[in-house]
Fold:
Amino acid sequence: MVLDKQDRSRVLVIGGTGHIGKHIVAASVRRDNPTCVLIRDAAPAYLAKAQLLKSFIDSGVALIKGDLFDHDSLVNAIKGADAVISAVGTCQLDEQTRIVMAIKESCCTEVPAV
Structure:
């Protein structure tokens, strides 16, 4: 069974510009899911990251400005998603609780245990 575009899950990837995250974004796009990436800076100083963001845009990925340390930006980004995937780096693993709190506030009824 092939789902229509409007029936596909809207995916938000947090940490989507990282080593693992960029592959998650690519896989979501290949599955034709509407995909968003939470980004801190839409005009990064590093050329490689700027090129990655351009490739995301070219493939139809929406970039959402936000930050793990800005609760309101997390909540707003999560409200538009059916699925939230965290691919934050190991130095930010303790910040997963911020993501879970934002998910809970975004009217999700269930947050699976990790």
